[in-house]
Amino acid sequence: MKRRDFVAGLTSLAGVTACTTEAPVSGGSQGLQESRFEWNLVTAWPAGLPGLGVGVERLAERIEKSSNGRLKIKVFAGGELVPALEVLDAVSRGTVQMGHDSAYYHRGKVPAAQYFTTVPFGQTVHEINAWMYYGGGLQLWRELYKPFNVIPFPAGNTGMQMAGWFNKEINSANDLKGLKMRIPGLGGEVMQRAGVSQITVPASEIFTALQTGTIDAAEWVGPYNDIALGLNKVARYYYYPGWHEIGPMVQCTINREAWDSLPPDLQEIVSVNCQAINLDMMADYTAGNARALEQITLDPTVEVRRLPDEVLALLKELSEQVIEELAVTDDWAARIKKSFDEFQRISAPYQNISELAALQAREV
Ligand code: CA
């Protein structure tokens, strides 16, 4: 972070103190005076978006309720207070106390942050939670964000995504060549190397881009969020699996001075509620995806298809190249990759003989 930004951060933090009203509250067994806090939280999501948007609103409500109103959090949708992709900057500067978005939106500034959303062929939701809470991931993440004056918390996950909506059949690796696809991040870099013309459009514009043929394909999230955008009305083939986003985590970020201003019990309330929303959002997506997929499979204009093995093998090979190059150019990415890969290496054998084997057995 530039020194100028840091100084600006300090200045605006005066604002944090100013909006923190301290009013004595009667009661409390030790007669302690309880401070009250009013925080602003900015997100990258459209207001009321199923899963992500609703999840963060629930997080704020639960924190207010479980703190007995001592910590009130006002949630702002993407673009309302700060641009959707500048959540981390706003929290870092202290413009707001809290943020909710995806770490990989900030890959331009913090390339290694991508590991704290997802990397292609990376960890499932179960694995990333295990790596976070019991595998050293959270400590590395907090160290990575320290220079930005921000404390991160896992606060949601969309679970396994889909490869995306296509208006052209993908029967071989050759079919990727020349395809115009909306796919951001490392997944987009991988697709580009496979011959795809990678295009970035925000979620709100995917529908029109597919409808008008500006793009041939687009990935967004999965059935629950994709039908909310109406993508099933403008594309024929719905391909799986979402090789590029296997268990993408969502982050809650808190400005360090704002965090430090909270008494320990409120800090614990925030921390526990972030963990609760991490579980709640996954449950919401699991239920929502189930119902939405049923709706999609009943629609005769849509075909749900698996990407051919040949295509997945190519994407895996290219993903390894892209991830390796990131580690070569960025020391933090190299350090986090080591921890992430090591965890996935020891985790995979048990996932294979438990979740994977059981899901296969259910279909026997
Ligand atoms: Ca996605």
Task: Provide an overview of this structure.
The relative contact order is 0.16. Helix 2 (52-66) packs antiparallel against helix 10 (264-297). 48% of the residues lie in helices and 14% in strands. The chain is of the alpha/beta class and 364 residues long. The chain has 12 helices and 11 strands. It has a 6-stranded mixed sheet, with helices on one face. The radius of gyration is 21 Å and the shape is globular. It has helices at residues 3-18, 52-66, 87-93, 125-134, 137-145, 185-193, 203-212, 223-228, 256-261, 264-297, 309-329, 331-362; strands at 37-43, 71-76, 98-101, 150-157, 164-166, 180-182, 197-199, 217-218, 237-240, 249-255, 303-306. It folds into 2 domains: 13-155 and 247-287, Bacterial extracellular solute-binding protein, family 7 (D-Maltodextrin-Binding Protein, domain 2); 161-244 and 301-329, 3-Layer(aba) Sandwich (D-Maltodextrin-Binding Protein, domain 2). It binds calcium ion.
